[in-house]
Write a structure and sequence with these properties.
The complex is a heterodimer. By secondary structure, chain A is mainly alpha-helical. Chain A is built from 11 helices and no strands. Chain B has a 6-stranded mixed beta sheet, with helices on both faces. Chain B has a 4-stranded antiparallel beta sheet with strand order 2-1-4-5, covered by helices on one side. Classes of the chains: A mainly alpha, B alpha/beta. Chains A and B meet through helix 1 and helix 4 of A and helix 2 of B.
Chain lengths: 263, 236
């Protein structure tokens, strides 16, 4: 554990001085401040921020994770020639990268939310939930990025695969679900859609955020079904487990690939 | 002593090493040479545990290389391309590696002075020249005074002064009974320092023995010409 944290610490130091890491935090800060100036209600700001976060966090995590792993290949080789296990190196780099990205996003969104947001429990809870869900999405897409960068030795293929996964999860999946919903419009679709949303981490994150704000009411009957399911402790537990599985499964496959990979 | 027995490595359909048998003497400088794609890097990376052999076994001083990482306390590695996290300083790169070991380095200051790295350590890696990064690599590999030093093109990018110092350093390691394994394309460098040489061709050992034996066998006075003669015979 000490060695994992040691590698994570130096990964964080490297990334926090990286201008792209700083740009990431500044971008969220500028967007959050801008939204607070445009919208009077804090709740509306959180929902607008949610759309930006659900779109950008998976994209940045996928690309940053893939590029960082390709760029660090020689250094990984050097560290692997030290008396340290591959498992330690893998989790050390992953933890460091995830911590740096989560810190950048959390500070970018959190600090302006505290300064410009309303001092209410509801705003505090919705902002905290947004940061928590954003952190989980970072971990999930970083795990997918690690897996893809380790599977593909060719940098171009790895980046294309990471972009492809993001494109599918962020855009295409919803289109396919919509097409399915239109094709089977005569059937009761609330529960199939409930499960369809759990098969995509971005949709799952969106549903969790929406059902824990007042905006679920705007989604009509489906929104009510979703809220009835995800709004309960059991529903939230199932959703949390699904998100945890979305992070754990690619991470485990990534670790397995890393342990047997020829560098 | 490094003993390599029936070492075979396949990448998909490409066979990089064909059932290699090899002994590398302790306390000597051994050069591994061969054309591009001959299996030099795969052989070195197998010694380092970066590549898992398809079959065969490697022992270093009697220690069988397996998935365990403990034996790496006994080796240092100078990679061909010295790339470190760009935003860390030289001192931080050093601290990263030092933190991975339980003991303190014994030759850190000596090597910093030897490679004149004192003024470079506070600089960020992105501000260092290729030669300085290579020197930093040498420092990282040698500061624990390992019994086995593995160098992949160590003189690449070094200025003449650093090149001369590096060769003198490798020769001094031999005097201290350290084993050095070097790959390089610069035959004149190897001619100056190597005791033994392993010539690889298409994943097979074409020659393994003393440099002087190779010169005698090919009737060539210089290593470069001797290797060229050997490879021409192999191709014929």
């Amino acid at each position: 554990m000490r060695l994992t944290l040691h590698i994570a610490w130096y990964t964080i130091r490297d990334l926090t001085r990286n201008r792209w890491g700083l740009l990431y935090a500044c971008f969220f800060a500028v967007v959050t401040i801008g939204l607070f100036h445009l919208q009077a209600q804090s709740a509306k700001v959180v929902v607008s921020l949610m759309s930006v976060c659900l779109f950008l966090i998976p994209l940045v995590s996928s690309l940053f994770g893939t590029i960082y792993l390709y760029n660090s290949r020689e250094f990984i080789e050097l560290v692997l020639t030290q008396p340290v296990s591959r498992r330690t190196v893998f989790f050390g780099m992953f933890t460091g990268l995830a911590a740096a990205l989560v810190a950048g996003f959390s500070l970018g969104v959190g600090v302006p939310s505290v300064i410009f947001g309303s001092w209410s429990t509801a705003h505090f809870l919705s902002s905290s939930l947004l940061i928590l869900v954003g952190a989980i999405l970072t971990v999930i897409f970083l795990a997918l990025a690690f897996l893809l960068a380790l599977r593909f030795d060719d940098r171009g293929k790895g980046l294309a695969a990471a972009l492809g996964v993001w494109l599918f999860a962020a855009l295409l999946y919803d289109g396919l679900v919509l097409l399915g919903a239109m094709a089977f419009a005569d059937y009761p679709l609330e529960f199939p859609l409930l499960f369809a949303s759990m098969a995509n981490p971005i949709d799952l994150a969106r549903v969790i955020l929406l059902t824990h704000t007042d905006w679920a009411a705007l989604m009509g009957y489906t929104g009510a079904v979703f809220q009835r399911f995800f709004g309960t402790t059991l529903g939230l537990a199932i959703a949390s487990l699904s998100l945890a599985a979305w992070a754990a499964v690619p991470l485990m496959f990534g670790l397995r690939t890393f342990r047997t990979k020829d560098f | 002593m490094i003993e390599i027995t029936a070492l075979h490595k396949r990448f998909g359909r490409f066979v990089a090493l064909h059932e290699i048998n090899l002994s590398i003497e302790r306390g000597k400088i051994t050069g591994i040479i061969g054309p591009n794609g001959s299996g030099k890097s795969t052989l070195l990376k197998s010694l380092l545990g970066l590549v898992t052999p398809t079959s065969g076994r490697i022992t270093i001083d009697g220690y069988l290389l397996d998935s365990s990482c403990d034996y790496r306390t006994r080796l240092g590695y100078v990679p061909q391309v010295a790339r470190f996290p760009q935003e860390l300083t030289g001192a931080e790169v050093l601290a990263t590696v030092k933190g991975l070991r339980a003991t303190a380095p014994t030759r850190e200051q000596e090597l910093i002075r030897l490679f004149e790295l004192e003024s470079e350590m506070p600089k960020r890696v992105r501000a260092m020249s290729g030669g300085t990064r290579q020197k930093l690599s040498m420092l990282l590999a040698g500061m624990y005074d390992p019994p086995l030093l593995i160098c992949d093109e160590p003189t690449a990018g070094l200025d003449p002064v650093a090149n001369t110092r590096l060769k003198a350093h490798l020769l001094s390691l031999r005097e201290q009974s350290r084993t050095v394994v070097v790959t390089t394309h610069i035959m004149s460098d190897l001619d100056e320092i190597a005791d033994n040489v392993v010539v690889l061709l298409e994943g097979r050992v074409r020659f393994s023995g003393a440099v002087r034996d190779l010169k005698l066998r090919t009737e060539e006075p210089h290593l470069e010409a001797a290797v060229a003669r050997l490879l021409e015979k192999g191709a014929a």
